[in-house]
Amino acid sequence: MVENTNVSTVLRLQDVRKIYNPGLANQVEVLHGIDLEVARGEFVALIGPSGSGKSTLLNLIGLLDKPSAGELWITGQPTAHLNDRELTRLRASAIGFVFQFHHLLPEFTAQENVMLPLLAAKGFADAAMVKRAATLIEQVGLNSVAAQMANQLSGGQQQRVAIARALVMQPALVLADEPTGNLDTKTADSIFELLRSVNKTSGTSFIIVTHDPRLAQRCDRIIELVDGRVAV
Amino acid sequence: MINHWLPFEAVLALRFMREARMQTLLIVAGVALGVSVIVFISALISGLQSNLFRRTLDYQAQIVILPPKAVARSLRSDPQLATRIQPRAQRLQSVDQWQKVRAQIEKLPGVMVVAPVIAGAGLVLRADASRSVTLTGIEPDSYLKLIALQDKIIAGNAQINGTDMIIGSDLAKDLGVWAGDKLIVQTAFGAAQTLMIRGIFDFGNIIQNQRTVYVALRTAQSLLDLAGGATSLEVNLTEPFTAKTVAETIQSLTGLDAQSWITTNAQFFTALAAQSMSNTIIRFFVGLTAALGIASVLVVSVVQKSKVIGILRATGTSRQQILRLFLLQGALMGLMGSAAGAALGWGFLSAWRSVAKNADGTPLFIIHFDPMFFLYAALGATLVGTLAAVFPALQAARLDPAVAIRG
Predict the structure, then answer these.
(1) Model's pTM, two decimal places?
(2) Which of A147, A150, B136, B364 could form an SS bridge with B356, CB 3.0 to 4.6 Å?
(3) Element (DSSP H or E) covering residue A229
(4) Where is pLDDT greater, at B350 or B111?
């Protein structure tokens, strides 16, 4: 096994497999040996038909699930032998999530939602945290609604909050699962532009799952997944 | 605004509970009712117990020392011979050299007062009415320290000398007399004396109010033909619950028959134990009910919030933090419930106290306000809440974030 120490590679997968219900009658192999690399600052589209294993792959990359075989490096760090606590820490520091249905906490305001990952990591709120969240809220253009409860915002606004939240820990990699999936075209475009500009200014890598070929074409690279394999 | 002094878990717990305010309110109200029942029942029972205790010891000495019973002995010792032994009739008998015995007992540690008493049967007469009574000769100085007679006097006073008597309110009514009137006292020994009613007492017990007549020790000695004698010595201690061992000491020291109130009131102690037991059972079941309520609210909350838990996990919240988040919610529900319940229980007690009164207008029982009890109730409820949250919290911490987010 080759130790990956190249820090310019944010993500590396080597022969990653995922088998659900191994050894049982209903055993399913969803991913059949994925090899993949994402460089620092790269903006990658992940496309493929439903059932091709996109979500499974994203969960593995996001350290929400463990591969059945193969090795996965995040910012050069191998992950196979990490326990839950170490995985949580690595996930918190290196990876940001943007989900299709934004998934904000309705009990908190827009700005507080952005702050939560920092709060979880540090334990107690402080002034620097509040300032960081406010800066990001401004960056995604939501100054006017920063103090509103999350569930009072429009779909596009909520997705902007989710993007700010994904960026608050300054992750090396942001995973976006159909971030524009349930938005109208105009809003979808502005969200995509926001992601692209964050990518350009901060050098954060992005993997964006999308069904929209128009958006995929505007990415640096397209990875297509077909039946659990990367199509060449 | 997020409070800078609260840890992450507390911020989330409070926000979740505030958002689900109806659930929170209902479960806190449920716990509060339970705690108020515990506070009320506990105070009631401890009040009743101290009341019972006081009532029992107000009217009787803690140790009564009597002369040994006269026994008829068989003259023949041959077991082959059938003998019939007639039990002796117990005539009124004095404690032998009671002054010496009294001085001896007064020296024992823990003894508060020793009072000589002479008691026998008598009749009180007024015109053609007569009533049979228990004539009790007392030495006011020592006897008033022994029995709370002073507090029960409703007319006149308890300071009697050789020509005075104190009678009960019901006897006074039966004979149509009051403090300051005179009555004739007669005994089976043929002695009779006219005595003045110095005081009237009300023990709240019709038998005692009809039957007990107090006279001076010397008066009783002459009426009962027991010059210089005392039929019993009655003892009070500084610690009533040591009565049994002190009585044994007295018995072995003097050879007299010493009976402690603990032995003569065995029934009373059985009642106390039964009350304490029922109190414990009530506490246990109320605690269990509160725990089940909190647990069920949290189990539902974990299901409702599974998506939120998934997001939190994806954005860097650890399993331990999720676990603590739900344990904390349980603890907070218990704490809030116990605080509200303590206040509610105190309210019940105040209301009860103003309703439940003795015939004479004094409170039925004295409720002890013990701040430590409220502290224990709060700690107990917090602990119960935390324990109740263990299962839901584990359930939440075990959620697979990938599955939870997909919903």
Answers:
(1) 0.74
(2) B364
(3) strand A229-231
(4) B111
